[in-house]
Design a protein that fits this description.
globular; disordered N terminus; 7 helices; alpha/beta; seven-stranded parallel β-sheet; 207 residues
Length: 207
């Protein structure tokens, strides 16, 4: 089977919640799990985030419905953007009710790496704003409910990814649903996602 047809899992390792992982993964400090004094978490990110097995920094970002103090979320998000810039790895963003704030901070911190808004399920107009900024979105199981078809139809194929976010849903079912709504060929779509992945993650599947 060609690598473009294989399933590839990129686990998200949350510092202070998960054990470090020796296989390809993303690594970051999630806003839900920021310590009141996050120095040790940031040290761990700097120590391990440079490893070849870490393909991206995150999930990191802002969440207006979690208990972590906002000022602490902003501080740690800014430091992770700076670290991603320093190591040249993509940034995976967790964002809840704070997209404009995320955009502002990414701009202020002069983000230089690809940015992916994970688990995106908002209005197509917001997705268009993300595309215009040069960022990416990742769509998940929420599209299967049939209420996000406009988001699917208007998605820029060179600016998206698909994910399960550790749900029990099979990733192939998300691919098939997306292609049915868009009326596009599944194999061609897989090839496009593969191109997106290798372009921004600097990683060859099967390597």
């Amino acid at each position: 089977m060609e690598s473009t047809a294989q399933e590839f899992s990129l686990p998200n390792i949350i510092i202070a919640k998960n054990y470090l992982y020796p296989l390809p993964c993303s690594l970051g400090i999630h806003p839900w799990y920021i310590d009141s004094s996050p120095t040790a978490q940031l040290d761990a990110l700097h120590d391990h985030g440079r490893k070849d097995s870490v393909l991206a920094i995150g999930e990191c970002g802002l969440d207006k419905v979690c208990d972590t103090p906002w000022i602490l979320q902003e501080e740690v998000f800014r430091k992770q953007i700076a670290f991603a810039n320093s190591v040249g790895k993509p940034l995976i963003v967790h964002c809840v009710r704070a997209h404009q704030e995320c955009f502002r901070i990414l701009r202020e911190e002069k983000v230089q790496v690809p940015v992916i808004f994970h688990g995106f399920e908002k209005h197509p107009n917001l997705a268009q704003e993300i595309y215009q900024l040069g960022y990416y979105i990742s769509l998940g199981t929420s599209i299967l409910a049939g209420k996000k078809n406009d988001l699917v139809r208007q998605a820029l194929l060179d600016r998206i990814f698909l994910e399960t976010d550790n749900k029990s849903t099979k990733i192939v079912d998300i691919y098939k649903y997306f292609c049915a709504v868009r009326e596009i060929d599944l194999d061609q779509f897989k090839e496009q996602i593969y191109k997106n992945f290798t372009h921004i993650f600097n990683y060859q599947l099967g390597a």
